[in-house]
């Protein structure tokens, strides 16, 4: 079967309420919601709506979640794909796929395009690595730049892209009229971890009075994705032990398990 290049979602239910913490990032990205909902308010005064913003931060911190929440808040379609798909799955056709993607988004505008792992296509050009395949990647990147320059100031398609390696990106991507805004999405602090726990505890059947301050304290360095994992793992551990509600010990066991996983991952990396 033919792999799909991008995913298109409408009627998104994710909103800023689903994104715990990240107050600064939410505040900055709120403006993009306003642009999508009420573009004339800005263009009537001669302003140009930005075409793109870069979400920068470590893995699992909620960049995808935040981008989706923008689409949910503005009630616009969400076109998403991963940069690595471009270069891995569509050898020889990356550029034309980019063209298709923008064409479809424009037809359904206002809309959001979300490109995860933009660094896979957006690494600086001209520093060829020995592995080859660079021409393909560069063609894809060039087409992306062309598309962003090409859509008129009122096309009302906003491109959000995520990376944890902003330093390797081709500077051309950051030029005015492209991804000229950067929004930082950092690992959560203790207060934010508590909020993230509250979001992911909500759907669980749990004992009363679980201390989320305690859980936040037990999880330094955890990302939002890690915390979501802890909550799910805790529920599975409780079920395995035939409990009818998830309790504190299940969370502690789940934290241990995730810490073990993180340590293993780090060993492979270094
Ligand atoms: P990556 O760089 O690995 O693609 P990301 O920054 O895009 O990661 P997400 O995919 O948005 O991270 O996060 C994964 C999951 O972790 C989310 O679907 C959500 O369940 C949870 N999560 C992450 N951050 C938050 C947050 N701030 N609030 C609530 N849940 C979060």
Protein architecture, described:
With 270 residues, this protein is an alpha/beta fold. It has a six-stranded mixed beta sheet with strand order 1-3-4-5-2-6. The protein starts with 6 loop residues before the first strand and ends with a helix. The protein has eleven helices and six strands. Adenosine-5'-triphosphate binds next to helix 3, helix 8 and helix 10.
Properties at a glance:
single chain, 270 residues, alpha/beta, 6-stranded mixed β-sheet, binds adenosine-5'-triphosphate, ATP-dependent zinc metalloprotease FtsH
Let me know the number of strands. Answer: 6
Given the helix and strand composition, which structural class is it? alpha/beta
Percent helix: 40-55%
Number of helices: 11
Which word captures the global form? Answer: globular
Low-confidence stretches: none
Strand residue content: 5-15%
Radius of gyration over all CA atoms, rounded: 21 Å
Ions, cofactors and other ligands present here are: adenosine-5'-triphosphate
Mean of residue pLDDT?
Answer: 88
Q: What is the topological layout?
A:
Elements: E1 7-9, H1 23-37, H2 39-43, E2 52-56, H3 63-74, E3 78-82, H4 83-89, H5 94-107, E4 111-116, H6 119-122, H7 134-150, E5 157-163, E6 181-184, H8 190-201, H9 212-217, H10 224-240, H11 248-269
Parallel strand pairs: 2-5, 2-6, 3-4, 4-5
Antiparallel strand pairs: 1-3
Helix pairs in contact: 1-3, 5-7, 8-10, 10-11
The site of adenosine-5'-triphosphate has 19 residues, from helix 3, helix 8 and helix 10.
